TrEMBL record, chains A, B:
Keyword match Ribonucleoprotein: no
GO molecular function, one term: DNA binding
This protein's name: Helix-turn-helix transcriptional regulator
Cross-referenced Pfam families: HxlR
InterPro entries linked to this entry: HTH_HxlR (IPR002577), WH-like_DNA-bd_sf (IPR036388), WH_DNA-bd_sf (IPR036390)
Amino acid sequence: MKESLTGCSVEESMRLLGGRWRLLLVSYLLDGPKRFNDLRRDVPGISQRMLTLDLRALEDAGLVKRTVYPTSPVKVEYDLTEDGKRLHPVVDVMKEFGLWLKQRDADKTAAR
Amino acid sequence: MKESLTGCSVEESMRLLGGRWRLLLVSYLLDGPKRFNDLRRDVPGISQRMLTLDLRALEDAGLVKRTVYPTSPVKVEYDLTEDGKRLHPVVDVMKEFGLWLKQRDADKTAAR
DNA sequence: CAGTATCCACAATGATACTG
DNA sequence: CAGTATCATTGTGGATACTG
């Protein structure tokens, strides 16, 4: 394969996952299936609107599966698909970098 | 101040790297130091403005070092710092996922 | 419970022109 | 060559109210 394609695949990933919440949602879904309001609780700060939009985007990308149980009131479960589970290493590496970054900046602030 | 939950470090990373171009720029800088116009060529589609802004952001985050050689005309080199090189695994994993994603979608399109 | 529907603010990005 | 400056457009996210 051409070299030019490899660079663009980073862009490709970021286009899908680059929002503020998407990868974060995925990181919670790695624990197992979750309901809508579970995710609202897990991700304090996200609005209903963004939660819906990002879940839809992940669903459209085939990374998340939405299951509706026709109880009353309805129960909806979100779960990673097999494709979605491919994000595990992505989440891990982002988490690790984020932790390091926060630690570094904490040290920087402390040193001032 | 936000809570220091593990999940939030994913958010932390994405806040810094979540733009359209930043991680892509880093991926090219992993090859070695590059000049401004090298990067413009490497990343077709990026505007001068965004290239400047994102390089500044990465510089401010301590991930990229900017070196000016006082020749005429001036030569400016951008290079990853040691901290910036910590992004290598991030880039790798994003590249890998992006490649897989493009391949999957190509197959999907072909099957239509 | 799990959403939609609106409306709005602001950030991100782009286009174009100009400069030391 | 390596940028700035300015303006316009698009995208992202938030607030609030409402619904089956």
